[in-house]
Amino acid sequence: MQRVVTGYLDHLTVERGLAVNTIASYRRDLRRYTEYLADAGVRGLGEVAESDVSGFLAALRRGDEDHPPLSATSAARAVVAVRGLHRFALLDGHVGNDVAHEVRPPAPARRLPKAIPVESVIALLEAAGSLEGPRGLRDRALLELLYGTGARISEAVGLAVDDLDRGQHTVRLAGKGGKVRVVPVGSYALRAVEDYLVRARPALAAAGTGGVRGGALFLNVRGGPLSRQSAWSILRSAAERAGLDGELSPHTLRHCFATHLIDGGADVRVVQELLGHASVTTTQVYTLVTVDRLREVYATSHPRAIS
Predict the structure, then answer these.
(1) pTM for this one?
(2) Which among 54, 144, 272, 296 is placed 20 to 30 Å from 150, CA to CA?
(3) Domain ranges of the chain
């Protein structure tokens, strides 16, 4: 068995050209696998059954006196190494069938989007507008639009003035792959953007050469288009002024938009269209956020929720 393992690692090094760290990880995983098989009385790869491979996966997740339980990601890497070993042994003629083929690596836990409560969003928006002068009006308009439409930051900073239809209360967003969608703009966001257009954008535009009409909707202090990095900095600075703990990402307000809509009873397919997701499966992750919130409320409110 050890001879096959050595041949497999040599194959990965020479023919596949895997990185040194990857080879080292595979070596550790396969050493643990061969030790597991030895403890189970298995003397060669030809004696291994599918139940041995699935049992090894269970042992990885369970841990023992010498090894802590592995996360899904680490266990998945080990199973990939084991599956590769058995496939190599089959192709090289050492065994007659691949018993590891049907053993699937564990799927890593899905990371739920981070959404903050409505009250925190309001505090964030107010903090954004607390700056004096054109910058405060611009920052409030930007964050109101992000939260009010679910736009990605890249979509928001890519807006032209003409993309906003103030008469129809809509905005035209260019998403991934150039796919364009028209999204309603709520009264709060529309009012903030109108205040910015009337009272702040002319002053910002005067610092550049593009003039007030046409061009980018959101401008920097030099009169040029606002960048994604600057928009992210605006969000981060507003969060600090609002005293919000935790890490806020450029997608925070987009996640809040979707989660709060579904909390309010919105159909997931409507939210899919608003977000510009190609598949409803991507949007359905927000329903998991809502279920988690329901569990939290139940656990803290129901007298017999905790046994």
Answers:
(1) 0.63
(2) 296
(3) 2-91, 119-249
94 noted as active-site residue: no
HSE (CB half, 13 Å, CA atoms) of 244? 26
Give the up-direction half-sphere exposure of residue 152: CA atoms within 13 A in the CB hemisphere. Answer: 13
Helices (H), 96-227: 118-128, 134-149, 153-157, 187-199, 201-205
Q: Does domain 2-91 have CATH number 1.10.150.130?
A: yes
Q: Which helix (H) or strand (E) holds 256?
A: helix 252-263
Task: Kindly name the residue from 86, 138, 201, 254 that is annotated as catalytic.
Answer: 254
How confident is the model over 56-91, as pLDDT tens digits?
999 999 988 888 998 888 899 899 999 999 999 999
List the catalytic residue out of 114, 228, 251, 293.
251
For domain 119-249, which architecture applies?
Answer: Orthogonal Bundle (1.10)
Evaluated on CA atoms 192, 197, 202, 204, the torsion sign reads: positive
From the candidates 77, 86, 138, 152, give the one annotated as an active-site residue. 152
Same fold? 2-91, 119-249: no
- Residue 252 has which token pair? 């925070």
Helix axes of 134-149 and 252-263: crossing angle, nearest 10 degrees: 50
